[in-house]
Amino acid sequence: MLFGAAGVSAAAFLTSCTSNDDGDDDNSSQQQQANVSDDKPGKPVTIGFAGPEADHGWLNAINDNARSRAKTYEDVTLDITEGSNDTATQIGQVDSLINKKVDVLVILPADGKAMTQAGLKAMRAGIPVVNLDRIFDDPQAYRCWIGGDNYGMGLNAGRFIGEQLKGKKNAKVVELAGLDNLELTQQRTAGFDDALKNYPNVEKVARQAAEFTVESGQRKMSDLLQAVPEFDAIWNHDDDQGVGVKRAIDQSGRDEFFMVGGAGSKAVMDSIKADDSVIKATVLYPPTMAASAIDLARALGQQKGVSGMAEFEIPASITLYSAVVSKENIDQYLPTGFN
């Protein structure tokens, strides 16, 4: 997304279209290229990174992606905190990074609303903030937001299931959501329901909310299997809780349905690749967003734009696409799977 060749071509095309002669074209192109972020070493940048506790496979992958990306740049020093789900602790960690006078901050808040003041404090101190995924309440609390598309995640899960079942009369699907008090869960369900409206032959007959844990996934899936004697597909919002979901399914001995997961864990991708279970697809919520956040932070620290885009500044927000990974494209996405 950040370094697409198509974007470079588009920028070059725009430059040629807005110039009056060959000389102007060369000058304009040079000016744009001088303003674009690239992989060549530049001004040293210290990036502070504050995220929640890595108590979930996806969150651990977020930290891994940030560390790995930072190591690819000779001019980047990453100062990463231990991570905490306690808001007061995370605020203290951000304060410490501000006091160290890091050049840029990347913050994935444990609670976006509760951490908004921390983002505002950093911005007021002249430290640009890249807000990662869980968004602050106030747009003044960050320079750039980058994150996943929860509504799109549900939408694409629903479309995939609908397409697989469009030739079946009276098809039945069930949904195993995450924590219902989280807005992201509500958005995923809304997207899923909206997608199914385009498939009148498909009916959602049951829904359970789990807690994004293996134990809750197993327990809630067992409840669904007992409550619904027959269905054709299930969408499980989260691949971590999907470990428990699969246990419950294996214990039941049922296989008349297929399952679509969520997030993109390596275990689920391996199962899709092997084609040895009811798991046939997963909808990505890519932890690679943390690597892209490092790219954006580096560009901010060096006062550059984004490679492949004509603008002199990085965007105010970037929403990632929730791709569906199935046996048709598994080899492309397998390296991005997280443990």
Automatic annotation (TrEMBL):
Keywords: Signal. The keyword Signal applies. SUPFAM superfamilies: Periplasmic binding protein-like I. Its main location: other. Residues 47-302 form the Periplasmic binding protein domain. It comes from the Bacteria. InterPro entries: Peripla_BP_I (IPR028082), SBP_2_dom (IPR025997). Coiled coil: none annotated. Residues 20-46 are annotated as: Disordered. It is found in: Cell envelope. Pfam families: Peripla_BP_4. Gene3D superfamilies: 3.40.50.2300. Belongs to the bacterial solute-binding protein 2 family. This is Substrate-binding domain-containing protein. It comes from Streptomyces synnematoformans.
